[in-house]
Amino acid sequence: MNAATNRTLGSPNVRLTISGADGSLAGLCKDGKELLLPANLAFALRLLDSGRNYRHFDSRDFRTFELECDASGALTRIWSDCPELPGMQIISHVRFDGVNFRFRNRVRDVPENWEFEMIDCPAVTVPETNELFWPRTDGMLLDEPEKSGRMFQQLEIPSQLSCGFYPGACQMQFMASYPVEGGGVYFAADDRSHATKLLEFRRESEDDPSRIRLRIECYCGHDGDRHHYEPPYEMLLRPFDGDWHDACAVYREWVEQDPSLKKFPAPPRWLKKSPVVMVLTVRGTGGINADENAFSYYENAFPRLKELSEAFDSPVLALLMRWDQHGPGCLRTAGPPPEA
Fold first, then answer.
1. Is 134 exposed, middle or buried (0-12, 13-18, 19+ CB in 10 A)?
2. Lowest-confidence range among 149-158, 210-219, 234-243, 300-309?
3. Which end of the chain is more exposed for a tag (fewer CB within 10 A), N or C?
4. How far is C-alpha 67 from the chain's CA centre?
5. pLDDT by residue (tens digit) across 102-129?
């Protein structure tokens, strides 16, 4: 097929358009209403180079793009030929299940001495004028100046306490964007394993506050094959009617079908004895800093915890504070954000 020809998939009333030039999302139309803005990239990546430096790449760094269509109408997008990552391929299979557009992403042939860390695919762009639901804490509706002025955020050590990581600060694995009159896009991870990811948003271009990119970054572990990575779940994109209540209802239905949430272990017996909670700040001396203190190595707290347990005649539950930001461990920074 002509590589520059856009392709669509979906149903007569719901159509997703994929750019034949670069594989980005060119549009999502429901009943004649366009719900997306054409994205200026298809995906983003982060890797560690041989010097252990964070490096950012996106679809524009790959010089070759192929778009294939199978007999079922599903599309496969393939990017290759990145000068700094020779031999590496990004493959994204897109299909429509009658309700959701499903994206299955794969990373192949990561070069030696590079370490793959995360993939953000698909890149979804919406108008700034839309309402934006962000699942931080109990869920938030974003307003200006936060919506278009938010700093670029990624998971890193020491972590940014304000970033939208899941499971953690973000309680849900979806975002939603819709016009004030209602009816928009639901963007989620269909992840029953509840793996680490980041749900964030930012101005797509520093020069244009009218375009907001929704980002769900999927982070990989390093216990398996370091040269090939495939998240064990799909990304979902679907139109919905209504406002954030209706988007949350979609997610609630998904949660209620999650078998892993029906297998909570029984609480330990000692927890029923109302233990005394001992808060330990393992770094810092009263301020938010990385200075060592008496508890910088966890075992240093054991004698004091035992004393308190005996004094209160109770089990003691140690609550570690700031362990993910200034705890003992390797500190590194993500460096400057990539250019949008």
1. buried
2. 149-158
3. N
4. 25
5. 999 999 999 999 999 999 999 999 999 9
Residue 121 phi, psi (nearest 5): -155, 125
Classified as helix, coil or strand, 309 is: helix
Catalogue all structural domains in the chain, each as residue range(s) with its CATH number. 7-261 (2.70.98.10), 269-326 (no CATH)
**CB-CB contact of 289 with 253 (8 Å):** no
How far, in Å, are 202, 291, 293, 294 from residue 285 at the CA level? 34, 7, 6, 9
Is 129:177 a contact under the CB 8 Å cutoff?
no
> In whole angstroms, what is the distance from residue 37 CA to residue 213 CA?
10
The Cα 201–Cα 213 span in angstroms is 6
Report how far residue 144's alpha carbon sits from residue 233's, in angstroms, rounded to the nearest whole number: 33
pLDDT, one tens digit per residue, over 229-238 is 999 999 999 9
For the chain, the farthest-separated pair of C-alpha atoms sits apart, in whole angstroms, at 77
- 35 vs 182: CA distance, rounded Å: 11
Residue 151 β-bridge partners: none
